[in-house]
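Handout, tutorial session.
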Amino acid sequence: MLARAGDPLGIRCRFLDPSPDAPAGRAAELVVGAYDDPAALDRFADGLTLVTYEFENVPVHSAQRLAERTRVLPPPRALEVAQDRLSEKRFLESADIPVPAWRPVASLADLRSAVAELGCPAVLKTRRLGYDGKGQHVIEGPADVELAWARLGQAPLVLETFVRFDRELSILAVRGREGSMISYPLVENLHAGGILRRSLAPAPRVPPALRARAEAYAHRVLDALGYMGVLTIELFQVGDRLLANEIAPRVHNSGHWTIEGTETSQFENHLRAVTGLPLGSTAARGASVMLNLIGTLPDTAAVLAIPGAHLHLYGKAPRPGRKLGHVTLRADDGAELDKLRARLEPLIPAGPPASL
């Protein structure tokens, strides 16, 4: 999607991915190699004027190696913060952005102490490499502590209090090279099994003060990191409060609706930002809903028969819990969108859950 957004701007892309079947290879040149393979990194960097990333688990030392040969944006510092939940939480707190109560966990004794302090339910998470619900265990009560430790205790951890939120939101913001910042409308998200299932944009029932608070949090993060590109903060809304769940220093799944649903997609704005071009309008074109296709594909003809439906298939082999594509449905207003959603959503297979 980044490559296709770059085509009208005259930006040619090259991708590095460990898999020869990576979908990016359908859109641009693909260098196959491990993210930490020095030879692959050197082949990839040869002749590039700039490197960016759309996956926050790229090793920081690899981004730093590339930065010795060409410009890397967003800066590797953003990867360093987002890859480790401990660093991420400390960073957010230093920026005066509220997060759920948490404690670091390095031993079973630490875990018992943290559970006693935070109470139950609580969520035990690996500090690194957790996404789409992986690397997490909900502790319902003290009897679950040893099971959670046996499941995740081989890695550094954090324990978070379980947040009984009203809804999940995300704010996507963009910062250009010269420091200008703009934000997309707040997005309302629904997860199941730790995987994003649906994004509704603009999120309904958002008071101006709530949107302003979300934008202020995003702008603090962008400024503190000296960031360039698109960045997303996942948020819990609890009454009139917003708690930051995590930072994604990249284009984000909850922003895929922007391809059809805004004046300038998150992918185009990311490329504009990192290459120094003026940022494009983030204004919504009516109302949109994005539905992920997880594990199983729908009937293509049935989906496309619905007015305003746009199908994106990634060319990935189906398997439980895997994102195979998405559908964005766009309408002029929320009332029309609701009518079309009622026709579309029954066509989207729920798919079997991923094993966490």
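The second record follows below. Compare its token runs with those of the first.
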Amino acid sequence: MSAQGTQQRVEDDRFVRDAPSIPGLRFRRFAGVADVPGIVEVGQAANRADSFDYVPTIAELTNELEHPDGFVAEEDILIAEIDGRIVGYGRVQHVVRADEDTFELFGDVHPDHRRKRIGRSILHAGERRARERASALTRRRTVRFASWGVDSALGHGAIMRAEGYQPVRFFFEMIKRDLGTPALRPLPDGLEIRPMTRATLRQAFDAENEAFRDHWGYKEWTEAMFGEISSAPHLDLDLWRVAWAGDEVAGVVATHVFEEENAALGLSRGWLERISVRRPWRGRGVATALILAACAGLRERGIAEAALGVDADNPSGALGLYESLGFVQDSRATSWRKPLEAGASD
């Protein structure tokens, strides 16, 4: 194919240098809210094909784009389309984790257009964009490419290995399939569960941030992250369970029910997210009490099962705790890393 033809397909995008020869294919930058439905459609189709029980929605992606954290949508999101229909996308996000600069690469290709090297072109373009951003960092730390994917997405794992990424950490999705009548556990003396409100959301957020500093791959929570959480379309603070020690937050379970996802998957599931206990109250049964209280809250809403995610190597013993409470491993995901200097294929 001529250089001129390649230039037309990528619309002068300086990062796409290996576009496959597919009639009607072109790569371009994110063009705004008009692209959101197409991105969501690709994500939903990809997750169905990969047996990944996550259904992104237009409202959720719109909320994320309204609170960008580590990316500029018009510069860091790449769109692949064929005859005007979005068939793939990629995003580059800068995150400082454990004092390392990571450029996290996310993306999907519609199942109807996989195995055509579209995904590799998106990945290579993301790496080039990450290198450009890394060159502008004022403080130079260890810099790495990073990615994450469920193990059932076999194509993602194959591309990661072929492109020189190494698995560095594993995560489990766990499900408690029968909430039954959970036996509640009392909190330690001096602690109590009180209703969560908008007025206390910031305090809970700050407490979660502090608690997660001890976790692998920690990133400092930002104002953008607080904005995204506080304006999330599925936010229902009545489901959250927060343990208070006087005026201090001791622990948090942020509980969510994603109604559109449940409808699409035929499930009745609630999610226990960001389970955290601050250091002074660890080892005293706070997490157990909060988890059981959260499960009871879901049951009262008529929800049949609860799910959560856990780091397989969590040093606090979270995996064993969840298993003792009736959660079983349902799927696994892998976190991948590659040194920035390793480069991308042209």
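Points raised in discussion: The longest strand covers residues 85-97.
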